[in-house]
Amino acid sequence: MQYNEVVGMKILMCADGSKISENAIYFGGLLAKAFDAEVVVLHVIENPKFDNSKKILKNAIGILEKFNIKPKTKTRRGQPELKIIDEAKKNYDLIVLGSHGMSSIKRFLFGDVAYRIVQCVEIPALIVRERRNKLRKILMCCGGSKYSREVMNFGVKIARAINAEVTLLHVLPNVPEMFRSFGIDETVEQFLKIDTPESRILKETAKLLEKNSIGANIELRHGFPPEEILKEAEGGDYDMIIIGSHGMFGVRRFLLGAVAYKVVQHSRIPCLLVKPKKFKFLSSLAAYKIRF
Q1: Span 84-100, average pLDDT
Q2: CA–CA dist 9, 36 (Å, integer)
Q3: Domains, in order of start, for the chain
Q4: What's the pLDDT score for residue 205?
Q5: 131-170: buried (b, 16+ CB within 10 Å) or exposed (e) per residue?
Q6: DSSP 3-state assignment of 104?
């Protein structure tokens, strides 16, 4: 699916029986309802001796029925992340995951199961930790990369479907203390007058939202991007963060991107990560590393 073709969405939701998994399915239901999406719920049986798949899938179906969604269900046997990664290749448009799951009797934190899955799938991923009962207010994070346009376009389609209130956020580096007395700290108006890749993307996205009758605020913050994104998200009572899973590459976060990595790890608000097509080849590399 191209990111500008979101209608008719097919969503993969992962169920493991945990409360956080159910939170993710509920929030995914809010989004699926807006798109009249086809939903598939997947449960992976890791240990056949502890097969609760019928109960887990029944609970997931019950959650989605609240949104008049009748999902298909699938079960697989084996290592959860590998089976989920394989299933996600089958023409889905979005995957929905809790920020940690259950593997045998051990709880895996985001840095393990869900993080490895996000590294390896090519499609956008919605990561949910806490229960959210509404989806009305979205924070869209606009970076300076040329790939940000893909992320913004996808975010606009989401916002239009749910008739959301949107804030476009860009984070600038801190102005050194010695220069602040000279008024160098830019306002939104000043920033948009400057012809930079960041300002062009912000203006284009704002116009696209306006064209789709969606009101949007533009916010500028100064500081370390992950920290400023989290401050804005928590302080602004947002229901979802949309962010590109690209940026600086490190040994452990080479695919997710440094900013997205930190935001998703620490955010209590659901995060929708959009991976630009340019970096999809890295998903296959990450999947290869997990298998071998």
Answers
A1: 92
A2: 8
A3: 10-128 (3.40.50.620), 137-279 (3.40.50.620)
A4: 86
A5: ebeebebbbbbbbebebbbbbbbbbbbbbbbbebbbbbbb
A6: coil
